[in-house]
Amino acid sequence: MDLNLLRTFISVYETGSLTRTAQAMFVTQPSVSHALSRLRRELADDLFVRGGGRMEPTPLAVELYPVFKESVGRIDLAVDSVRSFDPATSTHRFRLALSDLGELGFLPQILKRVSREAPLVEIDVVPMEIELLAEWLTKGSVDAAIASWPIRGAFNSTLLKAEKYVCLLRADYPLSNGAITLEQFAEAGHAIVARTTGHQLPETVMDSLGIVRRATVTVHHFAVLPHIVSECNLVAIAPESMARGWLQKWPLKTAELPFEVPALEVTLHLRTAERESPALAWFQRTVLDALR
């Protein structure tokens, strides 16, 4: 039986969702449905039925899950442990979860280091979904991730840097003694970056303080902020190092936030394997060395 069918079965069983399985396996939902249909035909059982807003396993699925889970895990570990890994000749593909800020700030350093040692290795950059990240790392859907929101799980984490958030404003935005007041902040139109990127700290603080902004636009990438802030005279919140980089190219300025936000901590998370994988160990070591 195709191992990918078993992986699909395991994910649907654990998530109770075809959509979340598709996200975890980085495939489309029709692909998950097709795989499930093949399994149903081969095993002559529905395996999962809809109920209570999720996919509920049938008695046969409940019986098969621990067997499939252990078998697939043992196969993966056995293959990884015996497979030789030579960076100079390997064509291995690794998965790295990054936000768009991570792509701008860290990916060039990582690619430079990896390509120098392993010119044929491929890196699949997975867009950040902060609510799924712990699951991805735990299940091995990604090999490493760089996030700015605390993630809990059975994986190793290393703090890369800490910095503050600032207000990003158009260069001619009127300020009082170089500061934006809380009243100005609340009344301004805002370009808001979605929380799924992992930059939730300012949002959490504002929620706790009861600060309500006037959202003009919500985006999913920081990279668009300098353009829309400068062209549309909006206010945005961004990490200081990235904002200061934009000042060199755009008619922008920064100001302190009119409320206190704890420092942003950017952390590298590395998934762990039950048995040593030479390829995974090399990749994680190389990423960490590149960012130190």
From TrEMBL:
Domain called HTH lysR-type: residue spans: 1-58
MF-aspect GO terms: DNA binding; DNA-binding transcription factor activity
Record-linked Pfam families: HTH_1, LysR_substrate
InterPro entries for the chain: LysR-type_TF (IPR050389), LysR_HTH_N (IPR000847), LysR_subst-bd (IPR005119), WH-like_DNA-bd_sf (IPR036388), WH_DNA-bd_sf (IPR036390)
Keyword annotations from UniProtKB, A to Z: DNA-binding, Transcription, Transcription regulation
Cited SUPFAM superfamilies: Periplasmic binding protein-like II (SSF53850), Winged helix' DNA-binding domain (SSF46785)
Domain of life, per lineage: Bacteria
Membership in a protein family: Belongs to the LysR transcriptional regulatory family.
Family annotation (PANTHER family): HTH-TYPE TRANSCRIPTIONAL REGULATOR LEUO-RELATED, TRANSCRIPTIONAL REGULATORY PROTEIN
Protein name listed in UniProt: LysR family transcriptional regulator
Taxonomic source organism: Arthrobacter mobilis
